[in-house]
Amino acid sequence: MTPRGLEAVLRRAALRAFDLSEADVPFVWPRNDHAAEGADAAVALAPRLVGRVRDTLPKGREDSHRRVVCERISDEVDAMAEEGEPDAGFARVLADKRGFTNVTFTCEQRQNLLRAAADGPRYLTGRPWTGTGEWPRSELHEAGPLAQARRYARADARARIALAVGEQAPPPGPEGEASWRDRYLDTGHAELFTPAGRVLGRIGEDSARVAFCRSLPEHPRESETTGRDLPVLPSADKPGAWVRLTDANPAFRMRYAHAHALSSLRWADRTPAPGARGCHHGHGAKVRGLLFDGPSVLDTAARREEPHILVRYLEALTSAYDEWRTGSTTAAEPAQGPEPTWAALDPALPAAVAGVIGTGLFLLGVSAPTRL
């Protein structure tokens, strides 16, 4: 069950419950981070709908109106499920005191979410990338000052995100293999004589683009940082952690997570685990929740024209994936042989992570290596 799929179900329920037209029901993104404990998603449709249906409600306070509207929507979803509508067959639908509809997915719906997210472009933007044209990309070394290179990188990210979610179908995205090589790190630095060029020769283009897009202010102070040893404007003399190939470098962590996710699928194919028994979705709930929120995060980044929103989301997904992949599987699948990896037990999850992280990095203008 994808966010767009869940929104469509609750929209139909609202139309039925209050005899409304399509134009009367606003689009509201379902969110995992708004959900009550144990639920997969929450939709704040009722608070947005109260004003349109107030005349049909009993007299009462605003909070009671939200609850009444939410309960009617929830009851209608249950009725749709009883009538045999497959998309409405959730494990649980519950209205809370905020007026949010909390939805708990079935195991099959959770698995379908992961399968959908593996196609990152279609999942995040709601359509295939089969349009024409080119993705915007500036030559950062042509900038003089570091601040100018930062403006170039941020403008690229904004334009690429806008193109991805715009009215026209975007051009095809990344295809095939991608390596760790960086043209600025692999070539001589004789022509990299500007401050922007020198920092590219020191930390590489991918780290530079992430560094430039990671912070909120358009005009940061020269000494400003976005974390420990992470300058907003890294220089050749003071690159900070952006020069390192370790977890201290957010760009490296995200690119490594993408490469690891794809590599783990290849490893799992070569060393298959024993037949899985039962559902493993409990262990991956945090990763799955972040994957679910991906489309709404991208929509917000596009609407606000703030690429740092996408960067921070990808970092959070990377951290959740790292936590998931390093967890023990002994309790989940006791076996007589070597302990299987989570990727072997649940290959749909790393495939989904690779799809979303790879697409997100592409929209930032950052390459996503496919092998470790």
TrEMBL record:
EC number: 6.1.1.19
Superkingdom, taxonomy of origin: Bacteria
DALR anticodon binding domain mapped to chain residues: 254-372
Top EC class for this record: ligase
Alphabetized GO MF terms: arginine-tRNA ligase activity; ATP binding
InterPro entries membership: DALR_anticod-bd (IPR008909), tRNAsynth_Ia_anticodon-bd (IPR009080)
Keywords: Aminoacyl-tRNA synthetase, ATP-binding, Ligase, Nucleotide-binding
GO BP: arginyl-tRNA aminoacylation
SUPFAM superfamilies: Anticodon-binding domain of a subclass of class I aminoacyl-tRNA synthetases
Listed name of the protein: Arginyl-tRNA synthetase
